[in-house]
Write a structure and sequence with these properties.
Chain lengths: ~500, ~625
């Protein structure tokens, strides 16, 4: 839309406008960093500037960011990384021998012995070997090939990359990607962005958010009318719902995937975060291989892991990996080409991933401290998971499933009709209205359930269980008061 | 293609399939199993088509068999479908066939019954113009029931290998060919195989640390202290390092580099970046709200993703220089847009000529709708530094033609030509005044991989957006937020790069010395590279003004070009492959970056230590002299 400027010099409108920009990007939403979170950042700024509020700090329970909530890094990891960063420290005697040895080994594998050099796009070879060994050990000896390991910039990068590789087609042939409801919004954002179709299957809230194959089949058949479903995404342990899948359920999913010839994406970044009695993490790969060659030689899948979660919670390093299984070699070549566009994942994150998959061993000097730190973090998380469920369930109008694993609870909230009407009048989604009000009145930052998807007419929020126990208790208490006040106000 | 439904015993089918000789398969491009069977009267009438397809380095073997059980209770035909390719990967070709046979044998539809009506249907793989083979099932149309079933099998077993066509269209890297050879050579050297060199010199990428340049002590000390905060209180590190680390940690949530940062980056670091830009540009204001940190400048290029509409018709185009580093053009193709090449003028020292931009614009007519112009200044791989005048012409051009300007300025510190100076597009734009300065939309990129610290492995860069519609900014923000944030160590390194130690601080003398050394080495290497390369017959390098690479033209004799064709390689890739084999030197072929047809080039990084540069040039000289002897 060019127009004449006052002085007669030809002037022009914008090249890039909301009307002509990529329409898919326009549809992308990302609740985990959405309006509530953005408002929280503003409020923090206001607090710093001395604006009076009914609270003195914002408690951010919106994102699985353990260190931000005060969790301490694992000493061994940071010692090795400090030496990788400044190798002069290797000469010093302030660090244990096993940490030095790890640092030397990592540096040896880096170009010019520097973590500042690019690595191979797929990741440093010896780190991929360590990852493969870790997977073998985790899965009771089932072989893992380092050539099938791709290190990545956090698990998100790997997930988006696989989706980008698989998405194609026009009209009714557009790729459908099956995602759970509720789901982690990275998936919906990436699917929208790539112009693929979201195929929703519902988790069963009445049954601890379990996954039912009949529901998968329903969703698949319904979707076949308008798209070509080719991918099934599973998050186990679940985000935002915290369920841990049973072995039976994993087997059922694998049978379904084989029958329907879907590509399976198994998001397993919370694999160490399992708290509930009787629950155990089992990787999709392990179950797949234990089901025999009929499955293990045919089902195509990718499994994702990350440095950001589990007991280490090192989100800022953007480290992760994926393992691809039964991928056609020609497709794998395309995948390798695709990852090369971004040169390589952060080498510091790769180094950290290496330490996560190759931690101190019982005969090494750092072992005791490492195990103590690791166990303490996981025990505290287990306690907080229990506490969260317990307290939330005492609030009339809030029901919360057990947090079996991962880092979140996703309780259901009953909202009075008046509140729903009021929200709608103001053009808000009711649970967004609820979370905004909670933020303004109590300084608690949660993510509304609508950002993850939920059954029509139900409302939820996601909160992390990460704040330190004492703060978590305060948070839950204030949440409880708020909910009661909110219910009264609108009844 | 034909099919028939004879009655055979399952065992007979198995033996029939077994009798296929793998040796024969390997040599055949298309193999019809019925030929094999015709020599075996026991299975006469059974038609199996087996297609073996040769794709460069490997053989694809795909066989689909549909068995139809007879008798009561048979509701639908059991299906045996096999994508042998996946198995071949695990167990080799023979193993793949073995699995296939086992599956046939264990299928209740066959083994559980005496009599099975078997229809064997081939899946034909047609090689299409170098593209991957397509599936053909046209011969099945005369059997509608099976046709539907067959379609389903094809869908299930094979069609899912169809991937995103935009990804497929991305030009494969020549690097992958050379990298394969590189790891072989490394392995051979490990095993003690004698070569004229003890280790390979790899100057393919612009990677200073790999090329022997040492990281800056100050930067690494601060990073170490941020990683292991006990160091903040230790006397092992200089006081300003410890202060800096403490301050930077104070900006991280929870005081840890292990937490996420805000989407666009640590807020204080964004302010530092904007202050740096203002300083650099002689006071032109920069708004931190317009700055986005990302895991490397290649991620920043996802701005293209906002610009390019994958559903638009005609498709969107991006004007992109030739030569140009390859990842950007790959990104454009990967997003489903068209790369519109404009050629830099080699004879004029790789100058950008605005007439050429006009020509490129015309060339796009009827092909695509160009919406952006991509510029690399200082040039990669060509080492040209644009003059202010040339930049003004470019700005007028994008304004007239309504293009979004993408300015890749990651080599801004690397300018060493005598009369060259780096000026940012933002500065020139601002100096040109309104209406241009408040209309031309610009994205400018810089990176922690470059500068004097050259921290490529930390993967962080930034993008500054100028004159964008605020409504669009909102969506860009959301898009970036799905990537969560740039690696925190990289963000910190970037902060340090743009705010180095100041005179008077304890770290300043060492910092100053290290950076001066690198600066001098780069200028020296540039001069030396041009001198040596131009002394060699058949090699010609334009004067280098900046950047991190030399990109000399290589004359390749026709007999060599012929040889390359026989080897199935681009001539300059073949040259690089021989250079790697014979001299242990890895450089990039011009094909990777684009070049005028009929010309050939090589690219190598000059941001190395002086010793490594000398060794690179010695190896190149030795090899090239012998090469010219061999081929003249």
């Amino acid at each position: 839309m060019s127009h004449q400027a006052a002085n007669g010099v030809p002037c022009r409108g914008k090249v890039l406008t909301v009307d002509n920009m990529n329409p898919r990007v326009k549809k992308v939403e990302y609740a985990v960093r959405g309006p509530v979170v953005q408002r929280a950042v503003q409020i923090e700024k206001e607090l710093r500037e001395g604006v009076k509020k009914p609270f003195t700090e914002v408690i951010k329970a919106n994102i699985g960011d353990a260190h931000a909530m005060g969790q301490k890094p694992i000493t061994f990891f940071r010692q090795v990384l400090a030496m990788c960063s400044y190798p002069e420290l290797l000469k010093d005697n302030m660090f244990p021998e096993d940490a030095k040895q790890r640092a030397r080994r990592i540096l040896e594998a880096c170009g010019g012995h520097s973590i500042g050099a690019y690595s191979a796009s797929q990741g440093i070879e010896c780190i991929r070997q360590d990852v493969a060994r870790y997977i073998e050990k985790r899965d009771g000896g089932i072989a893992s090939n380092p050539d099938n390991i791709y290190l990545s910039t956090g698990a998100s990068d790997a997930i988006v990359t696989i989706l980008k590789l698989l998405v194609r087609g026009e009209g009714c042939d557009r790729t459908g990607v099956m995602i759970s409801i509720p789901q982690y919004p990275l998936y919906s954002a990436a699917i929208t962005d790539l112009g693929a179709v979201q195929v929703h299957y519902y988790l069963d809230e009445a049954n601890c958010w379990s996954l039912d194959v009949a529901e998968l089949r329903r969703a698949l058949n319904a979707a076949r009318q308008h798209c070509n479903p080719r991918v099934l995404c599973i998050i186990n342990p679940g985000n935002p719902t915290g369920q841990v899948q049973s072995r039976q359920c994993i087997e059922d999913v694998i049978r379904f995937v084989k029958e329907e010839h879907l590509f399976l994406m198994a998001d397993e970044v919370y694999q160490d975060n399992v708290y509930a009695e009787g629950c155990k993490f089992q990787s999709f790969k392990k179950v797949l291989f234990e089901m025999g060659p009929e499955y293990s030689s045919t089902v195509e899948m990718a499994s994702f892991h990350s440095t950001s979660k589990c007991y280490m919670g090192e989100c800022g390093f953007r480290g992760g990996y994926m393992e691809v299984i039964n991928m056609d070699p020609e497709v794998k070549a395309q995948l390798t080409k695709l990852v090369s566009v971004r040169l390589c994942p952060p080498v510091s994150g790769q180094a950290l991933m290496d330490l996560v998959v190759n931690p101190p061993q019982p005969d090494e000097p750092s072992y005791t401290t490492f195990m103590k730190e690791r166990t303490a973090v996981l025990a505290e998380l287990a306690e907080k998971a229990r506490l969260t469920e317990q307290i939330l369930n005492t609030v009339p109008g809030i029901t919360c499933n057990p947090v079996q694993g991962a880092m979140y609870s996703f309780p259901r909230i009953t909202l009075p009709q008046k509140a729903i009407d009021k929200a709608k009048e103001a053009g808000h989604i009711p649970d967004m209205f609820y979370c905004m009000k909670l933020l303004e009145e109590e300084g608690i930052c949660l993510v509304p359930g609508s950002g993850f998807g939920q059954r029509e007419g139900t409302f939820h929020f996601r909160m992390t269980i990460l704040p330190p126990t004492e703060k978590l208790k305060v948070l839950l208490q204030r949440l409880r008061d708020f909910h009661q006040r909110f219910t009264q106000e609108f009844s | 293609m034909s099919w028939s439904c004879p009655t055979v015993k399952a065992g007979a089918l198995l033996s029939a399939v077994c009798c296929l000789s793998l040796g024969q398969c390997r040599s055949a491009s298309c193999y019809s199993a019925s030929n094999v069977f015709s020599s075996r009267p026991a299975v006469r009438g059974l038609s199996v088509h087996l297609t073996v397809f040769m794709t460069g380095t490997f053989v694809e073997l795909t066989l689909v068999v549909v068995g139809e059980p007879r008798g009561q209770g048979a509701v639908s035909p059991p299906v045996l479908g096999c994508g042998a390719v996946a198995w071949r990967e695990r167990w080799g070709e023979e193993g793949a066939l073995q699995v296939l046979l086992e599956q046939l044998a264990s299928d209740p539809g066959l083994s559980g019954r005496d009599q099975v009506q078997v229809c064997c249907i081939a899946v034909l793989l047609h090689p299409v113009g170098g593209q991957r083979p397509r599936l053909g099932a046209q011969a099945l149309t005369d059997h509608p029931a099976l046709h539907a079933r067959m379609e389903a099998i094809l869908e299930k077993h094979l069609k899912k290998r169809e991937i995103n066509p935009n990804v497929r269209n991305m030009k494969p890297l020549e690097y992958s060919i050379l990298a394969g050879r590189l790891s072989q050579i490394k392995e051979e050297l490990r095993q003690g195989v004698k070569k004229p060199y003890q280790e390979v010199l790899d100057v393919y990428m612009g990677d200073p640390h790999k090329g022997g340049v040492k990281p800056l002590s100050f930067v690494r000390q601060v990073l170490a202290a941020c990683l292991y905060p006990q160091l903040v209180n230790s006397s092992k590190l200089p006081a300003d390092v410890r202060q800096r680390a403490q301050r930077l940690l104070g900006r991280c949530d929870g005081g840890s580099v292990g937490s996420y940062t805000a989407t666009r980056g640590i807020p204080e670091t964004l302010i530092r970046v904007s202050e740096f830009i203002t300083r650099r540009d002689g006071g032109v204001p920069s708004n931190p709200e317009n700055i986005f940190l990302s895991p490397g400048s290649q991620w920043s290029l996802s701005i293209l993703h906002v610009l390019l509409n994958p559903e638009s018709s005609p498709r969107n185009g991006v004007l992109s220089p030739v030569p140009c580093h390859n990842t950007t053009t790959m990104s454009v193709t990967g997003l489903g847009a068209v790369v519109v090449p404009y050629y830099l003028s080699e004879e004029q020292g790789w100058e950008l000529q605005v007439e050429e931009l006009h020509r490129a614009m015309e060339s796009a007519k009827g092909v695509c709708n160009p919406i952006a112009l991509y510029i690399v200044n200082p040039g990669n791989p060509d080492g040209h530094v644009q003059s202010r005048k040339s930049m003004q012409e470019v700005i007028r051009f994008v304004s007239e033609r309504k293009l979004f300007l993408l300015a890749d300025e990651v080599y801004q510190d690397y300018v060493f030509g005598e009369n060259s100076e780096f000026v940012s597009y933002k500065r020139v734009l601002s100096e040109m005044g309104p209406p241009l300065s408040d209309t031309v939309e610009l994205a400018s990129f810089h990176s922690a991989s470059k500068g004097w610290m050259g921290e490529c492995g930390l993967r962080t860069g930034y993008m500054e957006l100028v004159n964008l519609d605020p409504a669009v900014m909102k969506h860009i923000f959301t898009m970036f937020s799905t990537d969560t944030c740039a690696p925190v160590l990289g963000q910190i390194a970037l902060d340090l790069m743009l705010n180095p130690p100041q005179p008077g601080e304890p770290s300043y003398p060492l910092y100053h010395m290290e950076t001066q050394n690198i600066k001098n080495t780069l200028a020296g290497n540039g001069k030396r590279a041009v001198e040596v390369v131009n002394s060699l017959p058949g090699l010609c390098c334009q004067p280098l003004e900046g950047g991190a690479f030399a990109f000399p033209k290589v004359y390749l004799p026709p007999s060599f070009i012929q040889k390359a064709k026989e080897a199935g390689l681009e001539p300059d890739t073949f040259y690089c492959s021989r250079l790697l084999d014979e001299a242990g030197l890895l450089v990039g072929p011009g094909t990777e970056y684009g070049q005028k047809e009929g010309t050939y080039h090589i690219r190598f990084c000059i941001l190395t230590s002086a010793e490594i540069m000398e060794e690179v040039l010695t190896r190149l000289t030795c090899f090239h002299k012998q090469f010219m002897k061999d081929f003249s």
